[in-house]
Amino acid sequence: MEPEEFIEFSQGQVALIRQHAARIREYGLDPDKMLALIEPVTLSLVAVQKKYEAAQDQHLDCMIKSADAQRDLFKAFEALVLPACEISPFDPEIQEAKEFLEAWREQMPKGI
């Protein structure tokens, strides 16, 4: 069961206990005790799930920023290497930089 499903189930159980409290008492059970056990855990689960989702959103934002920075770095390196290749096509250091650029390009998403 996924956390969201368990939270929904737990909230449903709390609602059912509240709705049928009188009937539960008829069977000699204490709905208030049941709620005292279930409700704090349910509220805690909801709070933790919200924190998890916020952290997950923050993580995704960081991944996007990292990918954007990597793309910008690649583009800046490419802007240095390609003109240098035209100026000195046989320079071994420039050839090495061009090979590095091409290897890096293969790792980048298509269209960059």
What does this structure look like?
With 112 residues, this protein is mainly alpha-helical. The chain has one domain (3-107). The chain has helices spanning 3-19, 21-26, 31-87, 92-107. Helix 1 (3-19) runs antiparallel to helix 3 and helix 3 runs antiparallel to helix 4 (92-107). The longest helix has 57 residues, at 31-87.
Structure summarized in a few sentences:
With 112 residues, the chain is mostly helical.
What kind of sheet is the major sheet? none
Global morphology = rod-shaped
- Structural class designation: mainly alpha
- N-to-C series of helices and strands: HHHH
Please give the alpha-carbon distance between the first and last residues: 41 Å
Oligomer: single chain
Q: Uncertain segments of ≥5 residues (pLDDT<50)? A: none
What is the total number of structural domains? 1
DSSP strand count: 0
Averaged pLDDT? 95
Helix content: over 70%
Gyration radius over CA? 30 Å
Helical segment count: 4
Strand portion: under 5%
Keywords, separated by commas or semicolons:
about 0% strand, about 110 residues
Helix/strand layout:
Elements (H helix, E strand, L loop, with lengths): L2 H17 L1 H6 L4 H57 L4 H16 L5
Helix pairs in contact: 1-3, 3-4
